């Protein structure tokens, strides 16, 4: 059985793919941070509305 040979081209291609995958993972992480921030703002707004509703209902 012949041993597989790995060329410099194979390594270069692998490094390019790893770099691309790393950029995609970084972009996904940023997207999750933005979603988290939006959800926190929305939760805050809902809580404010709920508090206001409670005040109005108490009167």
Overview of the molecule:
The chain is mainly α. The chain has a domain at 35-59. The chain is 86% helix and 0% strand. The longest helix is centred in the middle third of the chain and has 51 residues, at 8-58. The radius of gyration is 26 Å and the shape is rod-shaped. The protein starts with 7 loop residues before the first helix and ends with a helix. The model has no long low-confidence stretch (mean pLDDT 96). Residues 32-59 form a coiled coil. Keywords: Coiled coil.
What general form does the structure show? rod-shaped
Q: Looking at the chains present, what oligomeric state does this protein adopt?
A: single chain
The average pLDDT is: 96
Uncertain segments: none
Largest sheet: none
Rounded to an integer in angstroms, the radius of gyration calculated over CA atoms is 26 Å
Distance between the termini: 87 Å
Beta-strand residue percentage: under 5%
Number of helices: 1
Protein structure class = mainly alpha
Keywords: Coiled coil
Coiled coil: 32-59
Write a short abstract of this structure.
The protein has one helix at 8-58.
SSE topology sketch:
Blueprint: H1 8-58
Keywords:
single chain; 59 residues; 1 helix
């Amino acid at each position: 059985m012949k041993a597989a040979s790995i060329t410099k081209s194979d390594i270069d291609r692998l490094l390019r793919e790893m770099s691309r995958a790393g950029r995609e993972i970084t972009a996904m992480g940023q997207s999750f941070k933005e979603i988290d921030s939006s959800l926190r703002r929305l939760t805050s707004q809902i809580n404010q509305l709920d508090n206001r509703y409670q005040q109005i209902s108490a009167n």
